Amino acid sequence: MKRRTFVGSGLALAASWPLRGWSAILKDVGDVAAKSLDGADLNLPGKAVADFAASLRGDLLLQGNPAYDARRRVWNGMFDKKPALIACCTGTADVRRAVDFARENKLLTAVRSGGHSISGKSTCDGGLVIDLQQMQGVRVEPEMNRAFLEAGSPLGLLDHETAAFGFATTAGTVSHTGAAGLTLGGGFGRLGRRFGLTCDNTLAFDIVTADGHFVRASEEENADLLWGLRGGGGNFGVVTAIEYRIYRMDPVVLGGDLVWPVAKARDVLRYFRDNLSKWPNELYAEPLLVVGPEGPVLSTEVLWSGDRAKGEQVLKEFRAFNAPVADTIGPKPYVKIQQGLDEMTAFGGYYYVKNGFLNQLTDDGIDHAIDVFQRHPGEFFMFFDPVDGAYHQVAADATAFPNRGALIWLAMIAIWDSRKTADEKIEKVRAAWKELAPLTSGFYTNLGSDEPLAAYRENYGKNLERLISLKAKYDPDNLFRLNANVPAKA
Predict the structure, then answer these.
(1) How many CA atoms lie within 13 A of 299 on its CB side?
(2) Do 431 and 371 sit in the same domain of this protein?
(3) Is 362 inside a domain boundary?
(4) Which helix (H) or strand (E) holds 158?
(5) 441: helix, coil or strand?
(6) Predicted structure pTM score
């Protein structure tokens, strides 16, 4: 039997509750200092906190609990916040109780799945974190072409389970990313040109809305909410489960990297641009300007997810173009390729991103991007992710995801390992991005770092008005505001 413990000023444990299988009734709890939705200081009465803890099957962590420090940390080490309470939910019942407690106390509230929010929105200072990490599991129904995922699951679990049945769906590029957050913000991935965004392949969400009610959003019920959850982020509640459409796919694909010295980057990027529309959607190729062990290079990650014999023919010319200095393309398990960036993007590193969409990739634009990269050696890497193919087959107003029709998703990502250099690193990336930003239109909200709130709202484009109506319906008091936030009224 698992026993949970609470440690902190004035906390004491009572007897276990054997019928439930979890211990934990708190007595003599002192008031807990916290933050309200508007940032004001408030005190949560000790009895209310104790009653909240007793109503949960999972742990309620306060400062002083041995598990608190480990649980409060998020992926991006830039954010070292200290919530007043962390509700470690084990299921929908716990989520409903946590939402009720947050609403009743007008408590600043963050929702954490994988904790990968680049801008630190999955935690907060002085508020409540509704933590879904214990809610993990994926069930695959091959006959239905469906996968059902609990919202605390990482993308790697979705890949692992679907691959075992010879299926896949678009699921990001870093396997330890939380599936729920990625899906709610859109969801790019190595299979996106073939299958579309992750949210395009989402058939239903289970969600607890701000009033504490459990709702299912699908084409058959609450279709308006389904529309908003496909790209509208965490604005409407806490998603507890997701149903995905999955596709037959060989779990062994053609994948690897083609590498050229940076002196050849201009020609390779032009070749990439000129051939992109000709390549079948089964081909994913992402050029990356990066400083390698032997200096700056253009490294292009390649994945062919279709018939391998056809893929060898499609890739033959690209692999020979301009004599790459390295070619690691070969048959590989798709799940392993999905784990390829995990170490580079490890939990606890320091990350900063600027990104935007290119509607075209001109010769001058290519030259300018290479020039910016070379004038800031080693400060960031820059990638050119194709967002055509199946991404374009969904109308801009068919889901809340706003950025349809672009050719390339352009991003700069800085990664470092010391908080001491953070300000200097960030300023260098901002200065470099300022030179490229005029070439772009909009940005991918899942990788927004420090854009002002107005920019997030502007980024929704013509979909904002409909999102405002949904916000007024499902979260009129803006309980869920730590996200790419939509106002409840215009």
Answers:
(1) 17
(2) yes
(3) yes
(4) helix 155-163
(5) strand
(6) 0.93
Q: How far apart are CA 442 and CA 401, in angstroms?
A: 11
- Residues 99 and 417: their CA atoms lie apart, in Å, by 35
As beta bridge partners, residue 440 has: none
C-alpha–C-alpha distance, residues 350 and 416, integer Å: 5
Identity of the amino acid at 184: L
pLDDT tens digits, 181-213: 999 999 999 999 999 999 999 999 999 999 999
Q: b vs e for 65-79, b when ≥16 Cβ sit within 10 Å of the residue's Cβ?
A: beebeebbbbbbbbb
What is the tens place of the pLDDT at every residue in 87-130? 999 999 999 999 999 999 999 999 999 999 999 999 999 999 99
Which phi-psi region, left, alpha or beta, contains residue 336 (left: φ > 0; alpha: ψ -120 to 50)?
alpha
d(CA 4, CA 140): 32
Question: Is residue 454 one of the residues assigned to a domain?
Answer: no
Residue 223 lies in a domain: yes
- Tell me the C-alpha distance between 264 and 113, whole Å: 41
In terms of residues, how long is the chain? 490
Name which of 123, 117, 6, 126 is nearest 56 in CA terms.
6
Give the structural domain span for 45: 12-131
Is residue 152 a contact partner of residue 239, using CB atoms and an 8 Å limit? no
410 CB-contact burial (10 Å; exposed 0-12 / middle 13-18 / buried 19+) = buried
Which residue is associated with the tokens 């000023």? 9
Residues 302 and 438 in one domain: yes
- Mind listing the pLDDT tens digit for each residue in 124-165? 999 999 999 999 999 999 999 999 999 999 999 999 999 999
Record the tokens describing residue 404, joined without a space: 């349809």
The average pLDDT across 376-396 equals: 97
Percentage of the chain with pLDDT > 70?
94
